[in-house]
Amino acid sequence: HARYEHGAERQVMSPANHQLSGFICVHVAEQGAAVCLVEHSPPATAWDSGIGLYCQAEVHEDEELRIVDLQRFADLDPDLPDLFAKLPQRWVAWRRGPLYAWTLEASTDE
């Protein structure tokens, strides 16, 4: 499944409402693609939740990512609020598509 490692070079301004600030790919945020990967990485900054929402793409380039209040996108899938609340750090939830169940597993990324 797709991976994106939050790099130290990603120093950007915090969104105004940073309760659940995180990354989302443009395919989900702007093009209507289904969320197929929820990643909970260690936060890159003090305001970063460490949570990222991604589509099925294998790789996401920096220009394909947005930093947003993820609560704005919680209604894209009925399972997202629960995943936001319960997915442990260094874990991922993934699925093949919107009609499939989520699989939760520890991340293999360092």
Q: What does the overall shape look like? A: globular
How much helicity do the residues have? 10-25%
Oligomer: single chain
Order of helix and strand elements from N to C terminus: EHEEEHEE
Count up the helices: 2
- Main β-sheet: number of strands, strand sense, barrel status? 6 strands, mixed
Strand content: 25-35%
Number of strands: 6
Which descriptors apply to this entry?
about 110 residues, mainly beta, about 10% helix
Describe the protein.
This protein is mainly β and 110 residues long. The chain contains 2 helices and 6 strands; from the N terminus they run E-H-E-E-E-H-E-E. It has helices spanning 26-29, 80-86; strands at residues 21-25, 37-40, 48-54, 65-69, 91-94, 103-106. The chain has a 6-stranded mixed beta sheet. Strand 5 (91-94) and strand 6 (103-106) form a beta hairpin. The longest helix is centred in the last third of the chain and has 7 residues, at 80-86. It is globular. The model is unreliable at 1-18 (pLDDT under 50).
Helix/strand layout:
Layout: E1 21-25, H1 26-29, E2 37-40, E3 48-54, E4 65-69, H2 80-86, E5 91-94, E6 103-106
Brief synopsis:
This protein has 110 residues and is mainly β. The protein has two helices and six strands; from the N terminus they run E-H-E-E-E-H-E-E.
